[in-house]
Amino acid sequence: GQNIDQPTEMTATEGAIVQINCTYQTSGFNGLFWYQQHAGEAPTFLSYNVLDGLEEKGRFSSFLSRSKGYSYLLLKELQMKDSASYLCAGGDSGAGSYQLTFGKGTKLSVIP
Amino acid sequence: EAQVTQNPRYLITVTGKKLTVTCSQNMNHEYMSWYRQDPGLGLRQIYYSMNVEVTDKGDVPEGYKVSRKEKRNFPLILESPSPNQTSLYFCASSFGSGISGNTIYFGEGSWLTVV
């Protein structure tokens, strides 16, 4: 299994940029995911990083540093609809298992 | 349309009465998984399956059983439900191992209350 930590809540202003951090500890790292989840709905896939560096997809970017056990999700030009929980999840293939462990999620509130 | 379908979506049941939550996917995915989501605890993996007849425990398997007799179906069985199993349950599926970077598709969730 893994330990995944991310802040519980964040607030940011519409139009601004926000960075959500995630740290992880794993025995057999196999990539890091970010998911978005609106209240009462299913999580939806945002990004996946397995190599160090920044992956950009429109307003959303995700960064990974394997040596530091660290990732972040960057959201630009924030919109009200970006108010949601953002889940960091790590893939672990240590000890012959293939587990995907989620952090507890960061609830982002976007305010006018 | 690519779908992961769970049933029932909402259920209130009594302690000890066996129930099954079904999950079906139409994408020919190898990997399927069950999660429960509780306030303050996030998504926790119950069981996962790498392919037909291959299942393994996640982080919180106690009180649950699964089976994978067909590729498309992965039911979650609560043999004797207890109130601490009241939760929101998600089924998920993907190609490959589930952690290889392929998009994981989630069902809409099943709200289960055990009284």
Care to describe what's here?
- The complex is a heterodimer of chains A (112) and B (115).
- Chain A is mainly beta.
- Chain A has strands at residues 2-5, 9-13, 18-26, 29-37, 44-49, 53-57, 60-65, 70-75, 84-92, 99-102, 106-111.
- In chain A, a hairpin with a 2-residue loop joins strand 6 and strand 7.
- The model of chain A has no long low-confidence stretch (mean pLDDT 90).
- By secondary structure, chain B is mainly β.
- Chain B is 0% helix and 50% strand.
- Chain B has strands at residues 4-7, 10-13, 19-25, 31-38, 42-51, 54-57, 65-66, 76-78, 87-94, 105-106, 110-114.
- In chain B, the strands form two sheets. In chain B, strands 2, 4, 5, 6, 9, 10 and 11 form a seven-stranded mixed sheet that branches. A four-stranded antiparallel sheet of chain B has the order 1-3-8-7, with no helix packed on it.
- Chain B is globular, with a radius of gyration of 13 Å.
Uncertain segments of chain B of ≥5 residues (pLDDT<50)? Answer: none
The percent range for strand residues of chain A is over 45%
The number of E-state strands of chain A comes to 11
- Largest sheet composition of chain A: 6 strands, mixed
Please tell me the overall pLDDT of chain A.
90
Separation of termini of chain A?
39 Å
Q: Helix tally of chain A?
A: 0
Largest interface chains and counts? A-B, 26 and 27 residues
Percentage beta strand of chain B:
over 45%
Q: Give the helix level of chain A as a range of percent.
A: under 10%
Order of helical and strand elements of chain B? EEEEEEEEEEE
Shape of chain A: globular
First-last Cα distance of chain B: 36 Å
Rg from alpha-carbon coordinates of chain A: 14 Å
Whole-number average pLDDT of chain B? 93
Oligomer type: heterodimer
Put simply, the count of helices of chain B is 0
Give the structural class of chain B.
Answer: mainly beta
Total beta strands of chain B: 11
State the order of secondary-structure elements of chain A, H for helix, E for strand.
EEEEEEEEEEE
Molecular shape of chain B: globular
